[in-house]
Design goal:
mainly alpha; two-stranded antiparallel sheet; two-stranded parallel sheet; 10 helices; elongated; DUF3684
């Protein structure tokens, strides 16, 4: 019960009416916001159990709920604060939520211990091959409303490739196939930059894997006798 967090009294309806006249009041949203309990407190489990109810009483504004979801030292508090934000997004927060003004890493990613800003994670899980964070799968239908993009832009993709080139053939295939779906926005200067950058893994004698430039290798042609 929420009453456990306050020195509450109850002497019956008539007696309580008298006490109310004396200044005894019901806990306000401010009172709930001042509850301070950490994991060593005997009421910690009860606090977590009732945390969503406490948030409802507090009715936190957008900044407060995002800070709770992003900065709490307790993973369970972060999880519950984020759930409250999502559950109440369209009824309470959407009209105040402007992605360009949000600068906290509150969005849980597909890696369960990782959080990201809306500008630092994406919906398309293919881009994780280059090292980008992906928003958690159950949130992808709402991700656009949070300002999360489907894919990184061309500049981010180029930087991702050059800063974190693939180190083996299988990884390279995954990366290059994804980039092939995103190449429409690439500029001439992008292609020029890539021509002179070492990002293609190749096996050489006495070296496990070496990275070479596109202009220093060739596409393998298939012998006509080979089965495709």
């Amino acid at each position: 019960s929420l009453n456990n967090f306050f020195p509450c009294v109850d002497f019956g309806t008539k007696a309580n009416e008298f006490l109310a006249k004396c200044g005894v009041k019901k806990p306000s949203s401010y009172d709930f916001s001042k509850i301070s309990i950490d994991s060593s407190h005997k009421l910690w489990s009860l606090y977590l159990e009732n945390y969503l109810k406490i948030l409802t009483k507090i009715n936190p504004n957008l900044k407060t709920i995002l800070n709770l979801a992003a900065k709490s030292n307790y993973p369970k508090i972060r999880e519950l604060a984020f759930k409250y934000f999502v559950d109440n997004f369209y009824s309470k927060y959407s009209k105040f939520y402007k992605p360009e003004e949000i600068d906290v890493a509150f969005l849980p990613c597909s890696n369960s211990i990782s959080y990201a800003k809306h500008s630092e994670c994406f919906i398309n899980d293919k881009c994780k091959s280059i090292g980008f964070k992906i928003i958690r799968e159950d949130l992808r239908s709402k991700a656009g409303d949070f300002g999360v993009r489907q894919n990184p832009n061309r500049e981010e993709l180029i930087n991702g490739l050059t800063e974190n080139p693939p180190k083996n053939k299988n990884k390279a295939k995954e990366v290059f196939e994804y980039l092939n779906t995103q190449q429409e926005g690439f500029t001439d200067s992008d292609w020029k930059k890539l021509k002179d950058f070492e990002f293609i893994p190749i096996h050489k004698k006495n070296i496990d894997v070496d990275l070479i430039k596109p202009r220093d290798c060739y596409l393998k042609f298939k012998d006509k006798r080979q089965v495709p």
